[in-house]
């Protein structure tokens, strides 16, 4: 009788939180509370095109591994874009959806995607994927293991800031070129001169009223881009209650009235920029809420890395440098798999050139060479 078993769960309700979190480690996005908030708020659910198919590995009854898998009927909320692959399938009479996706919904953050014992989970996920068009593992730290199992790697670029042991924000600025240092000081001064004050709230200091205001800002940002928000107030309230130690809210006020906010999520080593919004336009306030105040907070708390997220070359001028992230893909149809492999080779070469070009625009002063 085998002591090892694999099963698929359509929720986390029957999965012990402590067992799951023992595998997930510190990063908040793959913890039981965060994923449960996504599911139970309806933000990521079958009704919205995210049907949970969580793969669970048990040994002697104890949870030994897990993968947060979803059967997806679209490609929204992923941040690794495969719309062209879907179109190619459809044009050739091959269904692309549903596909099998291993990811944290709406969260382009690097980290664990295969929790615990990896090898049996990867094999089981590939076996499951035979009933779908493809398997995609996004922003994964397990890229090398996945490539060894025949998945194709895809590179994307994000912008991250690193704490070099700065004593304060001025010490960080002193490492920048004169032009960049002057520009940041001017931008921060213009926000102050507009009568805006900033405060950073953590944990239980973020009240339900703060979450309601932030949700209002978040939804307005999507409306301004003529798009529909993925998340809802119930989700924000849930993570605020379940993971207060990970929550950071930058609140902008003018005349003692809140006008903008940015949400960041943290662990002991990394600060993750997530969402922002404003109900009143103030020039340059976005940079203050989303970059400068978070960097200042990271320095104060001795956090090593601030991940500013995907896209936005303007971030490099504010001290966030390009970093490659990896996702892995398996396609069932051999002809499409070969075509995607060729595409990824070309795209990967382009990404490498792009990162090299960006390095030429580093805002940091050249450090003297040691003799």
Q: Could you characterize the architecture of this molecule?
A:
The chain is an alpha+beta fold and 371 residues long. The protein folds into two domains: 4-157 and 323-359, 3-Layer(aba) Sandwich (Aminopeptidase), CATH 3.40.630; 164-303, Aminopeptidase (3-Layer(aba) Sandwich), CATH 3.40.630. It contains eleven helices and 15 strands. It has helices at residues 17-24, 32-40, 83-91, 118-129, 143-148, 169-174, 178-193, 208-224, 233-242, 285-301, 334-359, and strands at residues 4-9, 50-52, 54-59, 62-67, 69-72, 99-102, 115-116, 134-137, 152-162, 196-202, 247-254, 257-266, 270-278, 305-310, 321-331. It has an eleven-stranded mixed sheet with strand order 2-5-6-8-15-9-14-13-12-11-10. Strands 1-3-4-7 form a four-stranded antiparallel sheet, sandwiched between helices. α2 packs antiparallel against α9, α7 (178-193) crosses α10 (285-301) and α8 (208-224) crosses α9. The N and C termini lie far apart (65 Å).
In DSSP terms (H or I, runs of 4 or more residues), the helix count works out at 11
What does the average pLDDT come to? 94
Report the top-level CATH class of the largest domain: Alpha Beta
CATH architecture heading of the largest domain: 3-Layer(aba) Sandwich
- The 3D shape can be described as globular
Q: Give the CA-CA distance, first to last residue.
A: 65 Å
Strand order of the largest sheet: 2-5-6-8-15-9-14-13-12-11-10
So, the CATH homologous superfamily of the largest domain? Gcn5-related N-acetyltransferase (GNAT)
- Assembly state: single chain
């Amino acid at each position: 009788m085998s002591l090892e078993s694999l099963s698929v769960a359509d929720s986390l309700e029957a999965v012990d939180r402590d067992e799951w979190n023992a595998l997930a480690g510190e990063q908040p996005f793959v913890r039981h509370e965060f994923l449960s908030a996504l599911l139970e708020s309806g933000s990521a659910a079958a009704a919205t095109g995210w049907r949970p198919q969580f793969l669970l590995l048990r040994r002697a009854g104890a949870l030994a591994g897990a993968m947060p898998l979803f059967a997806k009927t679209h490609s929204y909320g992923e941040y690794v874009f495969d719309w062209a692959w879907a179109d190619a399938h459809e044009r050739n009479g091959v269904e692309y959806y549903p596909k099998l996706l291993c990811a944290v919904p709406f969260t382009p953050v690097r980290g664990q995607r295969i929790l615990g014992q990896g090898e049996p989970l990867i094999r089981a996920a590939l076996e499951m994927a035979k009933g779908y068009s493809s398997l995609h593992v996004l922003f994964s730290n397990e890229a090398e293991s996945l490539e060894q199992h025949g998945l194709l790697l895809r590179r994307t670029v994000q912008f991250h800031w690193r704490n070099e042991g700065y004593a304060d924000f001025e010490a960080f600025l002193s490492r920048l070129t004169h032009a960049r240092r002057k520009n940041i000081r001017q931008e921060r001064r213009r926000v102050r001169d507009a009568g805006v004050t900033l405060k950073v709230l953590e944990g239980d200091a973020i009240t339900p009223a703060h979450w309601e205001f932030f949700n209002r800002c978040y939804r307005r940002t999507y409306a301004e881009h003529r798009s529909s928000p993925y998340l809802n107030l119930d989700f924000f309230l849930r993570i605020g209650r379940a993971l207060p130690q990970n929550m950071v809210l930058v609140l902008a006020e003018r005349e003692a009235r809140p006008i903008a906010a940015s949400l960041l999520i943290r662990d002991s080593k990394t600060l993750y920029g997530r969402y922002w919004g404003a109900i009143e336009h103030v020039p340059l306030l976005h940079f203050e809420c989303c970059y400068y105040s978070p960097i200042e907070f990271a320095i104060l708390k001795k956090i090593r890395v601030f991940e500013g997220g995907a896209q936005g070359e303007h971030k490099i001028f504010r001290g966030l440098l390009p970093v490659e992230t990896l996702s892995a893909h398996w396609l069932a149809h051999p002809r499409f798999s070969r075509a995607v492999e060729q595409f990824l080779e070309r795209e990967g070469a382009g990404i490498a050139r792009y990162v090299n070009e960006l390095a030429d625009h580093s805002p940091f002063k050249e450090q003297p060479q040691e003799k």
